[in-house]
Write the structure tokens for this entry.
Amino acid sequence: MLSVMENNFTHPSAAEAADALQELADDRTHLASNIRVPWPLLAGFGALAAWWVATAASTTPGENYEPPITGWLALVGVFVIAHLIRREIGVRFSKMGAGASWSMAGILVTCFALFSVSLGLVSFGLHWAVSLTSVAAFGVTTLLSGVAFRSAIDKLHND
Amino acid sequence: MTDARFDETIHAPVRLRTCGLLRAVDQLDFAVLRDALEVSDATLSKHLKTLASAGYVAHTKGASVGRNDARRITWIALTSQGKSAFDSHMRALQEIATPKH
């Protein structure tokens, strides 16, 4: 029996080779389907975006405008949350997929646009309205982070 | 394109499946890999040791705030040599599975 098994390891038949390839595909599908989207941590990205947009309320738009340093702190926060996500799911993706790239670009564009709108609102004295742009930043960033994460899972499943 | 080369070290079922999962990612946590393969810690450790001896896999202990040593994350990854060997083995399997007439 052992010699037959050893023979299968060294000289598999066409059917055995096809079965082995199918099993590898099944394993990948199983791994991908077991990964849960870590929404609480993705909401952390949203919270960082909301915080950054909200800092527009404490600035003084105009000639004396100085960008807040919270942008750099938020960037550090992004790396910390990314690390926590990897630790939570136990997977470091090698490829995230095109959907993730578009989502990340969408997050950046949206946050810069909302920050600019916030500065405009502050210049008109509408400090309270920054809370609305901040909530929008939270929602869009959390949602698009989820899309990026799903894209990485799909890439793992389909590649 | 990678040349086809049947690798007996890789082809043992658990080791083949281990390499297959590791090839799809950058790194996997030991526990996630064990659960995906549905094998025991000891079985997986034994096969990883064989793959590591061949220079195909490497592991690193992840920093773990709030976790004691026993629960530290162990990240497993294919080395570049392992990726190359696995890709060659996959080509060999594909050729066996779909022989040219």
Observations:
- Chain B has a mean pLDDT of 88.
- The first strand of chain B starts at residue 27 and ends at 29.
